[in-house]
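Protein 1 of 2
SEQ + STRUCT:
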Amino acid sequence: GAHFVRTAVPRAIMSLSSDEVNFLVYRYLQESGFSHSAFSFGMESRVSRASINGALVPPAALVSVLQKGLQYVEADMSVSEDGSAFRPIELLSLVDAVMPAVVSSRPHAYRPSSQQPGVAVAGWAKCDCPALCPSLHPWPPVRPCCPSTPPEPLVDGPDEGSVQLLNKVSVLRGHESEVFICSWNPALDLLASGSGDSTARIWDVREGPGGAPAEGSSQLVLRHCIHEGGQDVPSNKDVTSLDWNSEGTLLATGSYDGFARIWTKDVGNLSSTLGQHKGPIFALKWNKEGNYILSAGVDK
């Protein structure tokens, strides 16, 4: 059987701050699509004031840490004091793992994961509430159809002959962190995106041969910097809002560094910096005439 050796090593002092926990929770809410909850939590916890470089934090960081902690609890339950594995590792739910009474009273009986109801191969706990766990229920259940019912045609065209299906899917790569928002230019085939890497980008997605965006679509990188120590340095704050003016010539962006910025579409020059806010900006909008911008932030 397996045998684990426990050696006497000095215990490492765990460094855990409330700012770090709040930041990971805030990121989790954003990544899960709970934008209003993320905003409320971010404002109350003042996560924007934490000295954390969000561009260095990978996506799904909170879930990754929880999974590793769950694996540790499962392994610790299966190893005796002398280091021998006295029973196979059991799969726990996340709620069970934080309840000492449940862990201590866990029966030693073991069933393979394939025989455990509601447990996936990857080790996810069962969730009976799709509304609370959208990531575990990404698609509606598949309904079987009657074999005698002919399938509906998916494309228009003659009954006989070949039909060419064009693939217009394209992946725009370049951001170094999660993308929070995108906006199409109202006049041209340009797409603007805002990200947690403290940049916005303008993508030229004009169609190439075959109807799909040209391979290696060009991009303008709009770096959001602040003036510090006599020079411009990256703000390291999320760009979470952006909007084109009605003519599609100017792009306005809002950042968690408290500044709204206006950029030109052609070369990505910074036209104006609006610094009246004293806290993160979470929304902004041009008026129809293009001479006013409405912005909303967490400051009072």
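Protein 2 of 2
SEQ + STRUCT:
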Amino acid sequence: MGLFVSFTLIMSMLFIGEWASTKTKAVVPSLFMTAVLFVLGFWTFFPKDIVEQVGFGMTFAKICVPLTLVHLGTKMDLRQLVDQWKAIVIALLGVCGTIALCLTIGTMIFDFRTVIASVPPLVGGLVAALLMSDNLKAMNLDTLAALPIYMLMFHGLLGYPITAMLLKKRRQTLKSRIQNQTSTATNN
């Protein structure tokens, strides 16, 4: 498969994911739809190295992730961050709860190394998954090196639809609250 065809296929998958998300008003998240399309593509006719053929492999990811983190850091408003302290506390408690559950229940089911390899993507996302995978390869634990990426994908396949549903519910709550405030202000 040529470079142009591979690039077009990847961009088409991203476009279809965005289109589906827009049409369903984010009931079907774009990342979820794109992930499903890629899985179907890899199961059927995509070459296994299509991402590397186009140049979006690990080298590209290792360049883009730090740039994205710096960009997000520069866009962050510290005053707003202080105002959102409850959300930060909830997020930190979620991380602590995930770690505690994995280390207690997870170690009852799997060995300690497997649990340790799977926790970072659950609490730290893509960056944590890439770092853990690289470190496992460096430690010659090749059998566990793919686990963080699999955990990230599985977490996403379950998490994206749930997140979309909860955000839609929150949107409805905020929308009715704003409408009530507007109607109250109009009546006064």
